[in-house]
Amino acid sequence: MSRFARALLFVAVAISLGTASAEESSSDDDPKQRMASIELTLTENVDGATPVKASAYVDDGEDYAIGAFRFAEDHSFFHVETVLDVAKKLQVELPETYSTPESLTKCGKKTCSAGKLWKRSDEMRKADMHDAAGADLIRAMFKKGIESDFVAKCEQSLERTFDNIKRQRERERREAEEEAKLEKRRMEEEEAMEAAKERKKVYEADFERFSSALQVQHDGVEATVGPDGSAQVDLTSAVVKEFVEGRWNETIQLIKKIPGREKSVEILLMEARCHEMQGNHNSALSASGYLIQQAINHEKWVTGSPRMMAVTLGANAAMQLGMSDKALKFYQTVLKFDPEQEQARKQYRGLKKVIKLMNQAEEQIQKGYNKAASGLIDDCLSAMRGLDVDSPLFRSKIQLKLCTILSNMDNHEEALSNCDSAVEIRSSSSSVSDSAKKEAYLVRAEALLLDMDFDEAVSDFRSAFDLVPPDSDEKRTLNQKLHSSMQQQDAWNGGKKDHFYNEHRGFPDGKPPERDHIKILQLPVNLEEHDKAVKCKWLKKQFKTLVRKFHPDKYKGNKKRAARKFKEVTDSKEHLSKQWEC
């Protein structure tokens, strides 16, 4: 039994040489010409496993070593002797007139020796270019006159290379799983936002019915105020009129004229609603809480009734203010007097779970465990679904927190997706305060800086700056951030002309852009330490990967970001190609 058979125990391999010619095997979809190909039959169990058909080939611009290593990768058949046998057959099949590219066979100006190939393979391995490392090892073993010890050394190194490929595949598998999870979360988030909008419609419909009932009850009654300014009987009708017509400030001013002890449940609900519509969550919380205290009794708390509407309004106001304990107390009060109230019980249990997850996430953030915090925030968003407090505005608070976490983890794509959603929610709502809008712009601006999108970051800093009251300390602090980001923007874009950078000094386009091209192309930070061959191989590999990822027609996220990244990658590749003479 051969060493190969002893090592594989029960793995049997049958190889048969195919007869397809180069012309027959070429494809209209593949711009490269097929130079050689073989067909194989692989059987991984001698006890009757179904044979698996496989193939190996060499395209124009490649050699037998590339074809053999690709065979191992494509079919996950990482056995040294089999791969060497495939390489030998591909070498035989290559036309005699075929000329292998010098980039594969030359080390400098001379043909690579076995030792030079070994050294180049080691450089490639250190740079995580395992396919190129494996191909060089195969070429080294095909050199004539090499000693058996050197062959054994190469075989061991090739086995380690195969192990590295397996680990690399595992990383890629995990990355693909993360990408799938991201896409799933995007879809779930869209569904959750739609569900939240539907619940918002129900909530608004309750207030429409409430307004209609009040209008019918007080239709035709004119309000009067006595000489001393005290409220008369018809003041309530005046309040109703202003409320129905959506004049929130006027309604509140009239309600202030009614003594607190004379305010009915309906008046208190209108007051709370006006504060909610103005984005004054503190006052909305206070008015809702007072209403609940006034309306407490052991009768059934009917869904859609004024006091249950006040519970939802008050809980929402509390959550907007970050007072989750107070939001829980609204539901606890209902359950204390009506334990069977289904809506309150469901909301209480769900909200309690959300609060627990948010507290756990905050603990992880404080410890610096961003990944664990990210998972808990995801769970929190899932738990929010189906809750009355799952308002778009509250959800935007969670999204901004998630944006910051993911940005710190360099997961810029998902981070900005959350930030974009939060900014859209806050900027499109008239009831959102300037302070809340400013917060969203600032969080996204910081995330954009980390993603090296300085143009959009400056735009967000400027939007936040415009929302801050003049002559305040915050205005001055934000002005410094704005100017700092503008300086980064100028350095990134280049083009500025001054006494040094101008056409007279050889810079007709102004100051060249200052960009970290290695970071843009996600290349290893120590790549400059390697030789030209390694750098150029990495450059080609990463460019191909990133242009495919950020192609605007295929990118599933923000198309504007994809177009920007696509251009940055292309520009950086052109710059490094010239610098490294690739």
UniProtKB/TrEMBL annotation:
Protein keywords: Coiled coil, Repeat, Signal, TPR repeat
InterPro entries: DnaJ_domain, J_dom_sf, TPR-like_helical_dom_sf, TPR_rpt
Signal peptide limits: 1-22
Xref: Pfam families: DnaJ (PF00226)
Gene3D superfamilies according to UniProt: DnaJ domain, Tetratricopeptide repeat domain
TPR repeat boundaries on the chain: 438-471
Residues covered by the J domain: 516-581
Sequence segments annotated as region (Disordered): 556-582
Biased composition (Basic and acidic residues): 565-582
Residues forming coiled coils: 151-206
Protein name as annotated: J domain-containing protein
